[in-house]
Amino acid sequence: MTRLALAALPLSLAACATAQPGSPYPGGNSADRYVCRNTMLEQFVGRPASAELGNEIIRASGSKTLQWVAAGTMVTMDFRENRVRIYLDEQNKVQRVACG
């Protein structure tokens, strides 16, 4: 398998994952159900990208949508309170995780 194909593998597995209905949210009303929280997301920095990691980040952040951002990829500047973005470096490891 080529290096590019290996780098794209996690992106194809969970390019836009969503939380399952009924996911636990330790918040208040249903309007806040999928608001992403930045607390404790730095624990994922340095870990290799995988579908399992994406699921962990969704659970930890409380977000509904996950977006993988490969190194050098441009993204829009729109803000979504229910989305978490995972920025990857050239080695396909998490460089940064941020809500929005």
Automatic annotation (TrEMBL):
It comes from the Bacteria. The keyword Signal applies. Residues 1-19 form the signal peptide. Transmembrane segments: none annotated. SUPFAM superfamilies: CI-2 family of serine protease inhibitors. The keyword Signal applies. Keywords: Protease inhibitor, Serine protease inhibitor, Signal. Pfam families: Inhibitor_I78. This is Peptidase inhibitor I78 family protein. It comes from Sphingomonas astaxanthinifaciens DSM 22298.
